[in-house]
Structure formats: structure tokens, C-alpha cells
Amino acid sequence: MSVLILKSVRNKNYFNIKKMLCVSCLVSVVYNVSAETEFNIDALDVADQTTIDISQFKDEGFILPGDYLLEIEVNKNKLPLQTIPFYEVAEQKDKGGVACLPHDIIPMMALTKEAIDKIDSWHQGECANLLALDGVIITNDIANGFLRIAIPQAWMKYSDPNWIPPEQWESGITGAMIDYNINGQFNDANQQSVTNISSYGTLGMNYSAWRLRGDYQTNYSSGANSQRSSSVNRVYAYRPLPYMAAKLTVGEQQLNSQLIDGFRYTGVNLANDERMLPPSLQGYAPQVSGIAKTNAKVTISQSGRIIYETNVPAGPFRIQELDSSVRGRLDVTVEEQDGSRSSFQVDTATVPYLTRPGYVRYNLTAGAPSEEGDSAHDIHGPSFITGDFSWGVANSWSLYGGSLIAGEYNSFGLGIGRDLYSFGAFSADLTRSVADLPEQSTKAGQSFRVNYAKQFDDYNSAITFAGYRFSQQDFMTMPQFLSRKERLENSDFSFIDNEEVWGDKESYIITANKTFWADDATKALTLFLDYNHRTYWDHAAEDRYGLSLSKSVNIGNINNISLYLSAFRTKLGNSQDDDNISFSVSVPFADRKSVGYSVQSTNSGVTHLANYHDYSRPNDTYQLSAGVQANGHAVSRGYYSHTNSVAAVNLNASSVQSEFTSLGGSVRGGMTMTEHGMALHQGGQRGGTRMMVDTGDASGISLNNGMAVTNSQGLAVVSSITDYRKNDMRIDIDLLEDDVDTTDGIKEGTLIEGSIGYVNFDVAKGFKFLARVVLPNGSYPPFGATVAEESGRVNAVVDEDGMIYLTGVKGGQSFDVSWGGARQCKIIAPQEMADVSMNKLTCK
Questions:
Q1: What stretch of H or E contains 78?
Q2: Any bridge partners for residue 342, and if so which?
Q3: Nearest Cα to 641, choosing from 363, 356, 313?
């Protein structure tokens, strides 16, 4: 109430401030008194003290009986909005209404079985008596829309403060979605123009806990080799199983196993989902790094399906937005604006992990391999079943293993994981494959693998992942077996150079970082290392290694001058090495603005550039570059990025004198549709979790620092939601218009994967006015009477001579006026603001 009064003062509405502040103090006391309270009404500056009724404020938590739309807060964790009845209890008449907790709310509180058995009922069995548990405290905070419940930890199942229990997760509502990424590029080189437009994304529908998804990708190119293609290359459905910490998936997928090399298949999978576990038990997500010679498009795919695509400015890049569930070998393509392309592969693997003692993690799959490309939905190979597990043998030991059985091809593996405590985490495993190829003898071989990870806090460094693998010549993965079998069945013994049929021999992978002199910011130097080495039994070796150095220095009065050096080399078989070296200096000269110099060396030559960067506006950033190549040709580049509540837009341009001119752009966003309406929004994880926010008929309401803004329907969607973790939806109070008020600026929710959550904010958008309430007999309601909306939210308190001040009022809206412990009459607001000029409102 005091918030409403102070806001009205800000808007220069005239009324007796001293009296209204005094009333607001009374309202504030209502929910804070510890026992029956007596008020000294002589302290009030009221002419007629016989018409004062503040009796309803004298008892702690006094609530008028009725139904209230409230959020239930259990130990500071919020449950979904509920309609809570308040009934009068004979032995507690002085308390007004007592909250009736429906029995279906109890399972959401994550209570122990002993606690649930103790809870009895009242009001003819309709209400659960939570007070039957010793130490439980229920506090009414109706004015702010809350019913707060404090439960001793002894009655709770879980005690991890960083984890919301499954009982409080939400499946969301029924709806449909599309998440899209559109890229366009125009190149004019050597008097030939090429236009390329591509798009990829995910279509989806939700019903209950089931999620149906389809990944699409399209491409159109005009020019000498014009072509177009379009496909839905993966269709699948899944549902989380929270109480099993698992996920059930049906349809077309990529095999995701601890031991068996991944491939595309159609079938069914049941696996543990680490994201449902407390944070300390979860894995890691891979990252991709490199150097772009020009403004470029980076595409990351797996088995022909685009996983991630983005535009990056010229220079070093590091992509860390990949989902933690991505495993196996990734194909990375960098398309430069001068028309050149470079490709490399990134091997990802799971950092060695330990399973809690006595627990078993599992991953079970049945299906058949499926084709890639234009025949993406066709079966390609024998049916199979596969599974892997990890068993926590002891505090520091885990045993894991797995197998794939397909008749013609079978593989088996077993390994151990060990927590080395201060020396990191380690795992080692051995896998054997047995393959029956047409017209050839049985091929059998082994593959040995060692993985290691360690965070060296004392030395400010980490080995994010290190792995070594050796495979015998006759060892085969499932994709290699299928490729060899197909060629043999087609009498093709040439085995042309195709990675699928090369025999893997050795591989070394390491990603690490180290900060030198970390205790002194003026001397600190950070080093990043990426190394990937692979050899084959029947093909030349491949290498990719990169080194990055970053340092910040101070020179005179100029602080935080950034120095960055990055170098990458890719060796693909017998082809020429692809070398990229980049060095840059960036000097800040204003708030988030900088100028600098960079030099980049590639196989095609050396380029020197002067750069200007402007990051002063978080949602609008750009950089401009101009320079010269070693051959004397002038170079100019521009890159602009804009993010708003419905999309992220990137624009880029490059030009090299006498060589090429290129223009490009991308748009990334999404659209979500439910029974409540439709909203465009920023792009999050494709087909991932999102929260629809409803502010009624209030449009233009900014949420989460402008991340989303409600549309004309009063709807917005926040797409940056973390699965199985508490997420806050916040109204940006400072950005509200003067005719908008809200009493609940924060909502919380914990959603399972792929959900469309829904929260409704109580936002009042309407006019404000000062009026006098008059009873039918010409008298006024007593000083201290409350004026409340139909939802039960108190909007105003009656001042002397019936004066009230209302905010966020809609034309014709009705309000209940209460005193003496009961609702007495009702007033109706005028239809328009112009109708009010200190008019009287009759309370009938």
C-alpha cells in the first residue's frame, strides 16, 4: 500500500499525504504484529474519531473469508499460482479466514513419507492440515499475493540448497513452437555473383509431458551452380521421467553412448539425464574454436544435421553455446566472404565422471541405423540393441561398460573411473568389435581409451579434457562397418578415400588453459591450448592444434589495453596445411569503445587492419575495419549486431579491392503458440524450454532486463530458460509507464526439458483517481475500511470523509469495501478518467 501512495505522490496526485501515510503504516503493521495489537487512535488527525474502524488490523494475519489467487512459497521456493479458499474456523473467529491447503498441493512440497502420514484433514476433508507437523509456520501475505510456509528440514526429502526437487518441477502447458535461423549471403567475385540463402531450425509441439520435434534445414543458391534443397532431417518425440532422472526418446536420433561410437539411427532410447541431478554431478559441454579470415559463417553439423550455425566477425572465434548432450565427432565448416571454405573436425568426449556410491546410470537403445542426406528417413543396416551403464562401486571408484548387438556387427566394452582427488579424475576402458563382412572373414579388434580431467585451482589452470585412444587395424565402429559392407555388397573394392572406411589407429586430444601471474592483474597472461592428433591404418595422419594468448596491460593513463594472439594449424591427410595466425591490440578510449590494430596471416597472404569497436550499447554493437593486404589491395569490413525482444540480427560486409565484394546477414528467433495466444521471441536452444509470460491486457511490459517485451496481447516469451533449475521472471519496474502498476514483480518456475511454462503477472494498467466513497444514507465508510479488487488484492484504504486513491483502474471495474471483519458493499469505477472530478462513488 505504501508503494501505491508513494507512486501517487510522484505523479503529483493531490490528497492529504500525512493522513494517507498514516493509513499505509497501519496496513504495513497488519502482517508484522506478533499478537493482538491496540492502536492509539488519538494519534490520527481525524475530526470524527467515532467513525474509525481499524479492528481488522489488530490481529496478526487477519483475512476476510473468501477465495484468493495466491502463490504458495515453501521454504522460499515458489509453487504454481493456486486459488486458496479461506474458511472461518469457530475457535479462531478473531483470525478471520484460515487458509485451506488443497491435498493435491502436498505432494509438490517434497515431504518425507513420515511427514505425509502425519498430515490430517479439516473442513469435511477438503483441507490438508499442515500444522499437524511440528515446527511448521504458515504466514498470510495476501497483500503481496503470497501464502508463505516454513517447514523444518527434518520433514523434507532433500537438503541441497542449490537444487529444486522433482516434486516442484513443472511440465508446462500445451503449445507449438518454431525456432529458426536464417542466413543470407551475396558474393560478387571475379565478375560472378552468387546469392545463398539458408535456414535451419526446429518445429515442435507439446502435450502434457510429451514433446514432438522436427529439425529442418533448407538451402538456396543462385549463380553458375544454382541449387535448392529442403528437408526435415530428424523427427522424434521425447518425454522426461523426473522421478527416474531419465529421458525417454522415440524416433530419429544420434547414438549418445559412453563407449559405443555414435551414429544416426531410428528407434527408442531410455537414458539417465544428468541435468536432473544436482549441479555437482553434471558433465560438460564441448566447444569449437578457430580463426575466420573474413566475416564468415561457421556451421557445426553431425551426421549431416546442422547443430549450430552462426556468423562471426573476422579473427579468432570460440563457440561455447553447444548443448552438453552433444557427443561424438563434429564437422565444422567455415565459409568465408571471399567464397573460400575450410573444414575440420572436433572430437568430443565425456570428461571422466564418477557415479554416486550405490547408484547406477544407464543408457538403453533399440533400433536400426538410418541414412543421412536426402534419404534421411530410410533404414540403413541391421537392427540392433545397445546399452551402457556406470555403477558407483565406492566413493572414488566407478565401473562402467556397454555393448552393441546387431548380429553381423557386435561390440563390447568395459572400463573403470577413478577420482584421484587433488590429482583430478581418470578413466580407462577397452572395447572389442566383431564384424562379419560379405565374402570376407570375420574381423575382430580392440580399442583402448584413456581420459583425464583436472582443475588446478592453486595454479590457475585446468586440463578441461585430455584423451588418448589406440585401435587395432581390424577394429571397426558401426559407421565404418556399414560403409564397408555397402561397398562390398556393391562389388566396390576400391574403397575411395572416405573417412567412414578409414581404419582409426591413434588419437590424442587435449584442451587446457593456464593463467600466469594471476595474482597481479597487470602481469596476468592467459594461455589456451587445443590439440587433436589422429592417425589411420590406411590413410595419412591428421592434426589440428591451436594456441591462444591473451593479456591486459596498462600504459601511462590508459588501462586495460588488450593483447591477443591466436594461431591454428590444420593438417588434413596429404593436403596443404591450413595455417591461421592472428594478433590484435585493442585500446579503450571511452565507455566500452575501443580502437586497435590487427594483423592476420593465412595461406593466401597477410592482412593489416585498423579497427574500431563500439560496445557501449549492449543490444547494438558494431565494428569497422580498414586496411591493406600484402599485395597492396585495400580491405574494408563492417560487422553489426542487434538484439531485441523478438530476434537477434547480424549484418556484415566485406570488400577487397579488385577481388570481391560481399554482403551478408542473419536473423535468429522463434515463435511460440499456446491457448493464451502467440508471441515472437529471441532464439534459445532449438526446441528447448521457454516461459510464456502473461500480463493481461498490458502491452509493452519489459521483462528480465529487456530480454522480452509483451506484445499487443500482453504476451511475451523468455527463451533463455535452464532446465530443472529455478528461473526468475522479473518485470523491469523502472521501465513501467505511469499508468501501469504491479504488486508481484517477480515470478519463479522450475521447468522440465522442452516445456512451455506459463506465468501470469497481476499488472494493472489503467487510470488513477481520487474519489469519495459515500454510503446510500449519505454517510461515509469508517476510516480504515479496505477497498479490494475481486482477486482479494487490497488497492486502497479509506481516509477521512470517505476519501480513497485508486491506481491501475479499468473503466467499470468493481471493488469490495470491507470493515467490521466482513465485506459491506461494492463501488463501481467510472468508465473514463474524464468522468471523475472528485465525484462521489456510491457504495451499494
A1: strand 77-88
A2: 334
A3: 313
3-class DSSP state for residue 107? helix
User: What is the spatial distance between Cα 833 and Cα 766, in angstroms, rounded to a whole number?
Assistant: 9
Instruction: Give the integer Cα–Cα distance in Å for 658 and 267.
Output: 54
Domain boundaries, the chain: 2-31+766-842, 66-165, 675-764
Predicted confidence band at 667 (pLDDT cuts at 50, 70, 90)?
very high
| Residue reference for cell 572416405 | 498
Q: Does pLDDT of 492 surpass 60? A: no
**Considering the domain 66-165, what is its CATH architecture?**
Roll (3.10)
The reply to whether 2-31+766-842 and 675-764 are identical in fold is yes
CA distance 25 to 36: 17
Residue type, 71: E
- 8, 807 contact by CB (below 8 A): yes
- 151-154 own/partner pairs: CB under 8 Å, 24+ apart: 151/74, 151/75, 151/109, 151/111
> Could you tell me which residues come within 8 angstroms of residue 386 by beta carbon, excluding any fewer than 6 positions away?
255, 257, 260, 364, 365, 366, 402, 403, 404, 405
3-state secondary structure 507-522: EEEEEEEEEECCCCCC
The torsion angles phi and psi of 495, rounded to 5 degrees, stand at 45, 65
In b/e form, how buried is each residue of 611-636, taking b as 16+ CB within 10 angstroms?
A: bebbeeeeeebbbbbebbbeeeeebe
Nearest CA-CA partner of 150 in 165, 128, 135: 135
75 and 158 in contact (C-beta within 8 Å)? no
Digit-coded pLDDT (tens) for 441-472? 889 999 999 988 877 766 777 777 788 999 99
**Residue 836: pLDDT over 80:** no
All residues at 6 or more sequence positions from 632 whose CB lies less than 8 Å from its CB, including other chains: none
CB distance 721 to 684 below 8 Å: yes
Q: Which residues, 6 or more positions from 119, have their beta carbon under 8 angstroms from its beta carbon? A: 106, 128, 129, 130, 132, 133
Q: 279: helix, coil or strand?
A: helix
Residues 369-393: tens digit of each pLDDT: 997 655 568 888 899 999 999 888 8
The C-alpha atoms of residue 794 and residue 167 are separated, in whole angstroms, by 32
- The stretches of 253-382 forming alpha helices (DSSP H) are none
In whole angstroms, what is the distance from residue 545 CA to residue 201 CA?
31
| pLDDT classification of 55: cutoffs 50, 70, 90 | low
> CB within 8 A of 405, min separation 6: which ones?
384, 385, 386
Determine the Cα–Cα distance for residues 150 and 619; give it in Å rounded to an integer: 41
Dihedral sign (CA 120, 123, 127, 130) = negative
Percent of the chain with pLDDT over 70: 84
pLDDT on residue 500: 44
- Cell numbers given for 280: 555437482
Secondary element (H or E) of residue 20? helix 17-30
**Domain topology for 675-764:** Immunoglobulin-like (2.60.40)
Residue 821 β-bridge partners: none
Which architecture does CATH list for 2-31+766-842? Answer: Sandwich (2.60)
Q: How many Å apart are CA 432 and CA 728, to the nearest integer?
A: 48
3-class state of residue 704 by DSSP: coil
**Could you give the CA distance from residue 637 to residue 437 in angstroms, rounded to a whole number?**
54
Greatest Cα pair distance in the chain:
109
Task: Measure the CA–CA gap between 204 and 214, rounded to whole angstroms.
Answer: 6
Burial of 746 (0-12, 13-18, 19+ CB in 10 A): middle
Contact 293, 314 (CB under 8 A): yes
